[in-house]
Every structure is written in structure tokens, then in C-alpha cells.
Amino acid sequence: MNELKNDLFLRACLRQDVERTPVWMMRQAGRYLPEYRATRARAGGFLDLCRNPELACEVTLQPIDILNADAAILFSDILVVPEAMGMELTFGTGEGPKFPQPVTCRADVEKLPIPDPEVELDYVMSAIRTIRKGLDGRVPLIGFTGSPWTLATYMVEGGGSKTFSKIKKMAFDDPAAMHLLLEKLADSVAAYLNAQIANGAQAVQIFDTWGGILTTRDYGEFSLQYMQRIVEQLNRENEGRRVPVILYTKGGMGWLEAIADTGCDVVGLDWSIDIDQARERVGHKVALQGNMDPCMLYASPDCIRAEVKDILAKFGHHNGHVFNLGHGITPDVSPEHAIEFFKAVREESAQYHR
Ligand code: CP3
Fold first, then answer.
1. Is 305 designated active site?
2. Which of 40, 132, 138, 279 is catalytic?
3. Are 64 and 338 in contact, with CB atoms under 8 Å apart?
4. Which residues contact 67 (CB under 8 A, 6 or more apart)?
5. What average pLDDT does the segment 247-276 reach?
6. What's the chain's average pLDDT?
7. Which of these is catalytic: 77, 208, 265, 270?
8. Which of 303, 301, 343, 300 is nearest to 323 (CA)?
């Protein structure tokens, strides 16, 4: 495999020395970019884009060219896993994801198969191989998945939710059925991530977008436990390099120590915590990724730069920081502001690594 020209991101994940802080952004390939919207139109729709390896590669590379990002993230969606388990998935224009036939009871859970990622998700593996060729070693490629709990919320609610009443009712009334669903998802996701790694993903991130809606007890029982199970099953080395694992629980900043104890390499932060306090709490165990408020990108370029400087100063002269937003970039941000964010991290961070 080709030599990596920029491995700042991988080194920072492993808390090794870097010349400056690497930066990438959740949802960096997305609707805020006119180039993305043009490619999506050529594909037909969002899911067609996910299923087309050439075009998925094209949108994955756009933020590398436009923003100079230090890592690429596979263009796909977390919900392709439940789809591969036989659930019909739709994305209406301007709407969120929908599962028209959601999981409603234990019998529904029992029917779900564990997909073979090389078969049902072969188009993702093909996209990964195409992207690695397209990147030609410029920056590393991050693969990803949703956490079992986060995937289950969409599968049981049938789409997005404000109250999460259906999945919580199922977890409280029939915990055995919920655990069966989460076990199946954990095994599906572990196989899926290992296939991504075998096909060329150089790091992987688990998105636990909805872990934060749980109580502390229920987070341990229904979300963290299953992420740990996945981490324990992953192949952590490929192409002669360690493959870092990033765990990101939005709304989970109260549980940082427990997240860091799973054996992951990096803990993803949302913007609700100061990064110096996060660092104090996890010590030298893991690297940290984050954590600018995504809405800061609506502010002026001067404000964006000041915030970048503030976060860098809070983290201070240490190894193990991957700069990112605290959650994904929103569709109506101006690309110029995103460019300024990346530029500010590159220019302001070198002084912390001398
Ligand atoms: O970060 C990247 O650039 C890689 C691609 C990526 C997408 N989705 C593309 C996408 C990643 C990593 C995801 C993860 C994802 N998908 C998550 C977890 C991360 C998070 O944001 O918390 C979740 C919860 C989903 C499910 C999902 N997919 C939702 C809720 C939506 C609609 C949200 C919205 O903003 O409307 C999607 C659609 C989606 N996934 C889009 C993109 C670029 C927009 C679809 C479009 O082009 O119209």
C-alpha cells in the first residue's frame, strides 16, 4: 500500500508527537458544499450516492481539496447497517431517514440476520478501496459506524425522534428483547468495521449520537457495554500500523472516564465540556477529539479564529489532540467559514508543538 504523506491525524490519535494539531470535521462531505450537491444530483439521491463507489469517492475527496483536511471520512451513512439486515430505508428530500416497518417486538428482533459485510455491504467496501486509490496516500481514511444503541433508536422509532419513547419503553418493559437487538447490532457492527479495516480504513469512529439521552445506569447497560464489546473484537493493526478507534457519545461528557476505559484510543467530545477539564479527567489514557461548537461556524471569521485559539490554549502543550467540531457541520454554513476554521487550526496550532 502507498506511503502516507500526511499522518498527523494517526499520530495524534496515538498521542505521538506532531508538528501541528491535525483537523477534520464531522459531516465534512455534505450539503454545505455546492460541489457535494452537484455530485448528489448526478447520483440521483443520497442513498444512490452512498451506493455508487466512484461518486462516493468523489464527495469523500472534496473536503480534502477544498479544506485541506488532515483526514478523509468514508462517505456513507450509519443506517446502511440496518438496511443490510433487511430493513427498508428511505430518505425523502429535505426529510430525515425513515424505516417504514420499524422493529416493534421481540419477534421482529429475532428475525433480523447478521449481515456479511463483504456481501450485503460490498458497495461500502468497494467505495473504501476506490477512495484509498483516489487519496493516493495524501491523508488517512476514517471508516465509521453507528453505535448499537444509536442504530437501535432509528430501527425502533422508525426514524428520528424527540422523546425516544418507543425505544425507551421497549428497553424498560422488555430488556431481554432490547439486549438481543443490541447484541445482534454489536456483532454486525464489529464484523462491518473489521471488513472496513481489511479493505483500507486506517482508523474507525463509532458514532453514539443518542447515548446521551440515557440515564447513567442505562448508558452503561444499553450503550457503553456494547461499544466496549465492539472495541474488543476489532483488528487494531493493518498495513503495519495501529488502527485507532474513536468513540464519540454526544451528550456523554459526564461519562468520559468510563468511555476512556473501554480500550478505545480516542474519545470524541461534544462542545458542552471545556477540553482542559476533559483532559484532566481522562489523563494520559486516550487522545481527545473536538470540540468547537458547530454553530461557531455561523459567526465571523474573526470569531472562528478566536475560538480556535481559545480551544488550543485550553488544551495547551500536550500530545493527543485531534481538532474537530463537537458535532457535524450544518447544511447552511458558508464554505468560506469552514475553510477559515481549518486554516486557523493549521496556523495557530504549531506553537503548541515545539
Ligand atoms: O462525516 C462525513 O462527512 C461522512 C458521512 C456521514 C454521513 N452520515 C453522511 C450524511 C456520516 C459519518 C454520517 C453519520 C450519521 N448518519 C449519523 C451519526 C453522526 C451524527 O451526525 O450524529 C447519524 C445519526 C446518521 C443518520 C442520518 N443520516 C440522519 C439523521 C440524516 C439526516 C440529517 C440531516 O441533516 O438532514 C442523514 C443524512 C445524511 N448523512 C446526509 C449526509 C451528507 C445528508 C443527506 C443529503 O445529502 O441530503
1. no
2. 40
3. no
4. 25, 28, 338, 339, 342
5. 98
6. 97
7. 77
8. 343
Question: Which amino acid, one-letter code, is at 162?
Answer: K
Continuous H helices in the chain:
8-13, 34-43, 46-51, 53-67, 80-84, 106-111, 122-135, 148-157, 165-173, 175-199, 216-218, 225-233, 256-260, 275-282, 301-315, 335-349
Which residue puts its alpha carbon closest to atom 9 of ligand 1? 77
**What is d(CA 39, CA 65) in angstroms, rounded to the nearest whole number?**
15
Q: Give the whole-number percent of the chain exceeding pLDDT 70.
A: 99
Q: What is the pLDDT of residues 195-253, one digit of tens each?
A: 999 999 999 999 999 999 999 999 999 999 999 999 999 999 999 999 999 999 999 99
Q: Is 209 in the pocket of ligand 1 (CB under 6 A)?
A: yes
End-to-end CA distance of the chain: 31
Query: CA-based diameter of the chain, in Å?
Result: 59
**Packing angle of the helix pair 122-135, 175-199 (nearest 10 deg):** 40
How far is it, in rounded angstroms, from Cα 199 to Cα 191?
Answer: 12
Q: Report CA 80 to chain centroid distance, whole Å.
A: 14
Q: What is the pLDDT of residues 166-202, one digit of tens each?
A: 999 999 999 999 999 999 999 999 999 999 999 999 9
- What CA–CA distance (Å, rounded) separates 313 from 193? 34
Q: What percent of the chain has pLDDT over 90?
A: 97
Q: How many CB atoms lie within 10 A of CB 328?
A: 17
* Ligand 1 neighbourhood includes 241 CB (under 6 angstroms): no
- What predicted TM-score, i.e. pTM, was given to this entire model? 0.97
Q: Is the CB of 197 under 6 A from ligand 1?
A: no
State whether the beta carbon of 99 lies less than 6 angstroms from ligand 1. no
